[in-house]
Amino acid sequence: MLNYHMAREDMVELLEEKGIKDQLVLAAMREVKRHQFVPPNLRARAYEDKALSIGHGQTISQPFIVAQMTELLQLTGKETVLEIGTGTGYQTVILSKLAKQIYTVERIKPLALESELRFHDMGVKNVIQKVGDGSLGWERFAPFDRIIITAGAPSIPSRLVTQLSEDGRMVIPTGPRRVQDLKLVIKHEGDAESSSHGGCVFVPLIGNGGWEDDE
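Structure (tokenized):
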């Protein structure tokens, strides 16, 4: 039987080798048990540095990408964070360890119900979630100190920039449907200033501020 603890330690060691430096992010990755967020038939592969299928045409992100995106947010424990694309909730729980309050949106209802139950069973108290079009954000709770989008968008959705606090940080993959550029967006005097942080591949962001459909 796979030793999940040792596999998780090996994963974190690999993240450090690949350049992740934020010790709080590494500690969260060490604490959260990724195998609890993947289908049972894939648990033996849970700590590989690869994206894995979670059904419904969706994936749980590669651990390095999870760590990189989280590190780019520069969380201190005081922030309110909007997450677009809950999936099975792995990234959400990582964020819950590092920020004050997480608001997360998932468009696929079965995944949202599954993650909601998982949050309850794990005793995660600082996550509020809903089913909906994440590309529109969650205006009711805006502005957000941080926004993270775990799906590829054709461009940076203006609605999300509007919901980002001044000097807030947003991490989003943008570009063609098959391959994207990971961008860090910092809002300064109302404008979105972006920088690139490498190529990545995400499922498409479907919705008003993203792609029209799954085709």
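The CA atoms of residues 51 and 119 lie 21 Å apart. Residues 4-17 form the longest helix (14 residues).
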